[in-house]
């Protein structure tokens, strides 16, 4: 049964009997692209969940369970930027899904599916850009569906419930840096909740400038703090809670300008100078918050980014603001670019581009990070970003063809005259390898007693992928590429054995070849799928694009997955599903040797192109 999470305001506390011998987490799986979380335990468990902020993160505690290993951490690109599972207490495991700065979740849209007391599924909605946060907002304690657990298991004692001790405020005479206060290139960012309707009164008395923020409640670990900043002629910023208002006091040096305070449209309090910032630091203490530019521009208000759109038949990406824009563009990896707009924020009615099928931009992510707007742009194969052009309140980023197109499927893969390299069996022994050639692992999945998927007419996966893998090997060897086969006969090789071989021979690439399957009642499902986990994204794109342009097959997209061979290979790794043995169209094609040869040539062509582009 599927349940919706409940809104905050319902204070739910879920307790579970604490066993003398704690249960264990048997498995977990989180897919950041689909925002799906699945976990299983060997004993019944009633989770507790909270949606926390600063940064936004979904925390799920599993009382009465142990992880049995060190904390597992994963990092991703995009709105969901982290996942971890650990054991903060001896009898409690914790799962945390972290969002990138500037993103939040709608708690109403989170769906929790208790398949059984030991098997849970969580569907997390697409994160959205955080807008104005309500003041004095407690963490959202989310109610989970109750499951049928015994109130007292045989031989187990009930856990004692200890009240949470209040956090004592830090003494006001303590001078320290704080995670709530950050120096920027044009002032300071204070990480507290508020909105632009809040009244802010200011008063200067000598070297002190006080701001009174009506209706603001400071975080308990910020109230009564004195934070040493030593930037822009400001020595310290003191914070104090006075009933229903917060007071913030800046201790200024002679070189400091006057300051104004305003809440961002997105989040946080901005402190900006009236006039130019001084070039030197205050020199009162020895704990600067951050390194800043020696000359900071005059700032009065953040530039509103109103719209980002693709124009001119998707050949230009246009960024529109309400005043003169500046940006820095960098390439994070092949095909992935980052654009940082400083002193900017997303407008409340911000409009992003609608990416159409066939657009040269395959993915565009926009997020707010303090006083910066950050774009992550992923171009499709053969495209790249050109030179940035600025024109007052507009920035244009040309999208250009960046690499030569792949050869047609019937074009030769190599110049005439290449001799076929001698083939060495890789089963049971490490083959003889050169040191100056690219080295590729070709992995034919399954084998031996493991037939893999069985489809229409008893078509076995292992019987169709081995011929394709052997053809790929032959083609690559003619390209003067060292090829190592995980198997070249109908034998079974474990998943660990496959990745150990790849890592031991220090391969440059790992390509696993499989065939897909679904219920025999769905013969209408056919098509190509290509998977990667971490560094294999570009390799997956090249192989996938090459197959689609050289083989008559439907496109079922490139996907990220946690397959064992992808996660445990030290080199860029992909898994190619060459079609569905349960699909009427694919099954017929996969029985055809000519079709399998075309598939092998296309896979090899993608591998060769990747090697050329990356100078392997």
Task: Describe the protein's architecture and organization.
The chain is mostly beta strands and 616 residues long. It has 4 domains: 2-142, Immunoglobulin-like, CATH 2.60.40; 175-274, Immunoglobulin-like, CATH 2.60.40.3500; 303-401, Immunoglobulin-like (Sandwich), CATH 2.60.40; 439-613, 3-Layer(aba) Sandwich (Aminopeptidase). The protein has a 6-stranded mixed sheet, with no helix packed on it. α1 packs across α6 and α3 (537-550) packs across α6.
Write the layout of secondary structure elements.
Layout: E1 2-4, E2 23-31, E3 36-41, E4 48-52, E5 57-63, E6 65-66, E7 72-75, E8 80-89, E9 92-99, E10 103-104, E11 111-116, E12 119-123, E13 128-129, E14 140-142, E15 175-176, E16 181-184, E17 187-190, E18 200-205, E19 208-214, E20 226-231, E21 234-242, E22 245-252, E23 258-263, E24 269-274, E25 303-311, E26 316-321, E27 327-333, E28 336-342, E29 344-351, E30 361-369, E31 372-379, E32 383-385, E33 389-391, E34 394-401, E35 439-444, H1 461-478, E36 482-485, H2 495-504, E37 509-516, E38 528-532, H3 537-550, E39 555-560, H4 564-567, E40 573-580, H5 584-590, H6 593-613
Parallel strand pairs: 2-6, 15-20, 25-29, 35-36, 35-37, 37-40, 38-39
Antiparallel strand pairs: 1-11, 2-3, 3-12, 4-5, 4-14, 5-9, 7-8, 8-9, 10-13, 11-12, 16-17, 17-24, 18-19, 19-22, 20-21, 21-22, 23-24, 25-26, 26-34, 27-28, 28-31, 30-31, 32-34, 33-34, 38-40
Helix pairs in contact: 1-6, 3-6
Under the CATH scheme, which class of the largest domain? Alpha Beta
Number of DSSP E strands? 40
CA-CA gap between termini: 51 Å
Classification by helices and strands: mainly beta
| Spatial strand order of the main sheet | 1-11-12-3-2-6
Instruction: Note the main sheet.
Output: 6 strands, mixed
Q: How would you sum up the global shape? A: globular
Helix content: 10-25%
For the CA atoms, what is the radius of gyration?
A: 29 Å
CATH-defined architecture of the largest domain? 3-Layer(aba) Sandwich
Number of helices: 6
Q: CATH H-level name of the largest domain... which superfamily?
A: Zn-dependent exopeptidases
Q: State the domain count.
A: 4
CATH topology term of the largest domain: Aminopeptidase
Mean pLDDT: 75
Strand content: 35-45%
- The low-confidence parts are 1-20, 131-138, 150-176, 280-300, 403-429
